[in-house]
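Comment thread on ticket #2218

A.B. wrote:
> Attaching the input chain for the structure job we discussed in standup.
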Amino acid sequence: MEFITGLSFIEGRMARELPRKAEDEEPNFWKGLARDLLVAAIVVVLVLVAIYAYAGVWPPLVVVESSSMQHGGQESFIGVIDTGDMVFQQAASGPGSVITYLEGRATGYQTYSDFGDVIIFRRASNPTPVIHRAILHIVLNADGTADVPALAGLPESEWEGSDSFGQVTHNTTSLRYVTIHGMGYARDLGITFDLGAFATPGRTEGYITMGDNNAYLYCSVSRDPCRPSPPYDQGWLVRPGDIIGRARGELPWFGLLKLVFSPTESCCTGWGDREAPKNSWDLLLASMLFLIALPFLLEYASRGWTKYVSPRMPKIAWPWRRRRVEGATPGASRDPAKPPAPESSEGPPKEGSSGP
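C.D. wrote:
> Ran it. Output below, let me know if you need it in another format.
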């Protein structure tokens, strides 16, 4: 009778506790979801703040819309700015923060597989920013000549200039023209810069820029000297205040998605547009398929590790686990809901005897 009564008491208690447990789980689910969303939001904010702290400019990423910086028209490369790449930019902190092609060539400093910095800048005639390499920094003179101090870092065999009278010179000041040999990513172009063409009222100094790919498009007839026409940007002289940032790193291919959904004059009317290299489209598709499959791959990898690898791994005696075990109360654990059994005053049964 006592045994049956005990079972009835336990069953009744469990019946009363089960609904309460189900009721507790529902608010715990929403609390957990809210906590996860809050943590995710904090992580995103911290990442954006860190990116902005590094870049110093917003947005920190720009999408390359044309092929002017490619190193070839049919194939894209990692470490080169191609159509559809997303390029990180960092603010130019002030004078001297931009290293020109001439300065990079003298010191060996390279970005994107050629000397000098690639800069993102504005033009007064067009709201769309341009991303080209900074080639020369010139200081304009009132007589239509310019000073190019960075030429002093090159051997005289690699360049020659001419003054306003047409005399060949290796002075770095009062130059009307300057020709630099060994230019381009293949180091085989000889380009003459008409410095006097930039002497307009209101201009005192600035950067002459050029697209890496444009250099070879415009030097198609002859590479040294470059013909039929100059490949550098002749329509503007980039003032320091026009510079948005310097290119720093890239996320290849993924900018093509933006160009597909929001085409520009340069690219892209649809998936596979020939204005972007074919291997960029192929690699973009492969990357998207990989990202879709990644959660499933991680799930199967986790299951395989738990089932096959983890059981065969040696047990590691972590110090904190050892302390926890040593600090535990010896003896078997008991059910906290069950009261302790009363101690018997008669002591243990004697050997050979039985209980009442």
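A.B. wrote:
> Thanks. Noting for the ticket: The longest strand covers residues 126-140.
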